[in-house]
């Protein structure tokens, strides 16, 4: 079957920031041939600097510095400079709470909010170089708190509001944070998520925390610890309105974000100031093609890297109007997102394949209720998007009119590294397509030998890029070993990928998600993608199960769409279906039907747990990021009954 290719339509191309493949190739070539000049020019034209850098980068493998000696401020670039340029009345954020409350915040408003917030932090005794944890619902103050920290050079670490007190505690301790910025709670599916309670629980064993700033959101009753906790609304009444942005070194630590590694201990990924902001800004412009008049909405939570780079820093620095929504996509109905798109006339929408598949499962009647004609560009992030979900997103949401940018990147990369430029790159559903300028990816084996076209291998990046992580907080050896030590001198992504005959990258998933069945390399993703094409299947997760003869066998966990199913017949049908879709060698050994799949709170399927279930029948290790523990228990006990 020939691969469908979607070329950008001429109208889109004519208005795009990067128009046509020649323009893309020219940018790519400039960056590859002369990275100093390329990034230096962009830094000069795209960002404000208080002091110019002495040189663009300094690479002492595996440690890099960008814009050495330069002084800037991320908050100033995201807020003040737009106000100074006369854009103060432009909306920075349309915000909507889950219960339906709304706020409109212009760049003028944002500047006022950020200065007040920064003054409260100063009044609480915080200073440049301190660390603060932000544990907040999706309210404007979450972004304001991040920006206020950035304004003062307080390194922030946002902990997703869905994390438990235990997970919060581990992060506070690792970071030796001086402050926690939180709220009483937030709204999710009509219920209050009580954040301050979790903070209180965590702080029992966190002696470094001297102050807790609490924003009032739900107005629920709270116990405030005297001398430690302050209500934001009371503290702000006592501070001044202005607070200048601190001139910070380009390598000043902007934030630490914890992410799961291959071990149980989360890794604190450190991002710094100038290089990070430049690449977040440029990729927002190149990939989302943002222009005046756009309304841009990224549905991620601010607690994940996507929220950092593509809700707060990239879009604000690019000066685009954004949307922030507090709650769940199904509250009060499965059309909440589409209602929001229609209300604010969202033109660029960025979400995850998991969300798309959940929406597919609910049926096309939900988006059909709303006017989605404002949309002009769609994005996807976080995992490979299976072609069936891509096609649905394109047809049902984008009405065959909107390009889809499938963006590959990681917490560690800070910004999008592989993605289409929508006015240039022909799209192939399921491929992140081509690298961004300045990014030199390759596919290699563990000895460092490059793989040929369509051969699977390890995705690596050859040169440092501006928004690259600088280290793992407090553990430079782990940083060096994990990212630069697997294959000497290159950044190891941990993903498997192949590059096709057109140079397009197809990310197949994490390296440990690759199976070997009878000597055939099989991607779990490839089989999952085949399964979800079946009309009865909602979601699927595939893991390799040790097998005496074939090395591994294919074990599939499947959730079904609503309706009556004869599961025995369907099990046979699905095995045959996969054999038909991919080849007889890929025929699953086992199909297990389940109510739900174990997922991290960011929506990624935890295949590691499924692998443990099929190999050892038990689950151990770090499960603090699980969305629903019940799922694992049910899967494990189902196994015991087998
Ligand atoms: O496996 C890749 C997958 O998500 C991993 C990074 O996860 P995280 O650090 O949580 O960041 C997610 C948001 C950037 C990658 O190693 N991944 C991310 N985006 C894609 C993807 N896999 C395939 N296609 C993508 N577009």
Q: In a few lines, what is going on in this structure?
A:
The chain is of the alpha/beta class and 642 residues long.
Task: Give a verbal description of the structure.
The chain is of the alpha/beta class and 642 residues long. The protein has a domain at 512-641: ANL, C-terminal domain (GMP Synthetase, Chain A, domain 3), CATH 3.30.300.30. Helix content is 34%, strand content 23%. The strands form nine sheets. Strands 5-4-17-16-18-19-20 form a seven-stranded mixed beta sheet, with helices on both faces. Strands 7-6-8-11-12 form a five-stranded parallel beta sheet, with helices on both faces. A four-stranded antiparallel beta sheet has the order 21-22-24-25. Helix 4 (74-87) crosses helix 6, helix 7 (165-175) crosses helix 8 (195-203) and helix 10 (274-288) packs across helix 11 (305-318). The longest helix is centred in the first third of the chain and has 17 residues, at 107-123. It is globular, with a radius of gyration of 24 Å. The model has no long low-confidence stretch (mean pLDDT 92). The structure holds adenosine-5'-monophosphate-propyl ester. Adenosine-5'-monophosphate-propyl ester binds next to helix 11, strand 20, strand 24 and strand 25. Adenosine-5'-monophosphate-propyl ester (PRX) binds next to helix 11, strand 20, strand 24 and strand 25.
